[in-house]
Amino acid sequence: MNSRLIEHRGIVQRVEGGKAVVAMETGGCASCGQSSGCGVGKMAGDRPAILLTLPVSAEIKPGDVVAIGLPASRLTLSALLGYLFPAFAMLFGAWWGSSLEGSDGATALGAIVGFLGALGIARIAIALLPGLMPTPQLISPDSPSRFSHQEPHHE
């Protein structure tokens, strides 16, 4: 694949039926050196590990450290569809409600209709075009030092 992948480390818990169950780490990254004061690390640190079930293409066994990759372009597109589109639709709905009635209630109702309409449209678009959602890929590590220079960065 030509697209750049966003990678995160995980540990294979079990392999069964051609699928691997991978526990994703929930701690923050080490890229900025603020491990004790990192807000993302504090929010994620107390959460249980996230388990993903992914197809296995290589010889992977429980205990292996693997990378889970997401295509950056699809992740960006899904973020736009999930965050930016509903926000703009809510603003448009508020403007529309205000221009029709002019009251605060109509503005609020227009915002709600715009937001819910955008969520419905996004849900239909994802169902019709499954390529919009990023699909995680299991990447077996090439070397033990694979993650020494590619920790994810949170700003």
> How many beta-strand elements?
5
Number of helices: 3
The strand line-up of the biggest sheet is 3-2-1-4-5
Quote the average pLDDT: 76
Distance between the termini: 27 Å
Element-level helix/strand string: EEHEEHHE
Strand portion, in percent? Answer: 15-25%
Structural class label? alpha+beta
User: Helix coverage percent of residues?
Assistant: 25-40%
Strand count, sense and barrel status of the largest sheet are: 5 strands, antiparallel
Would you give an account of this structure?
Strands 3-2-1-4-5 form a five-stranded antiparallel beta sheet. By secondary structure, the protein is an alpha+beta fold. The relative contact order is 0.20. The model is unreliable at 143-155 (pLDDT under 50). It has helices at 39-45, 72-100, 104-128, and strands spanning 5-16, 19-24, 50-55, 65-71, 137-139. The two termini are 27 Å apart. Helix content is 39%, strand content 22%.
List the SSEs and their pairings.
Blueprint: E1 5-16, E2 19-24, H1 39-45, E3 50-55, E4 65-71, H2 72-100, H3 104-128, E5 137-139
Helix pairs in contact: 2-3
Brief account:
The chain is α+β, with helices and mostly antiparallel strands and 155 residues long. The protein has helices spanning 39-45, 72-100, 104-128, and strands at residues 5-16, 19-24, 50-55, 65-71, 137-139.
Fill in the keyword field for this structure.
elongated, five-stranded antiparallel beta sheet, alpha+beta, 5 strands, 39% helix, disordered C terminus, single chain, 155 residues
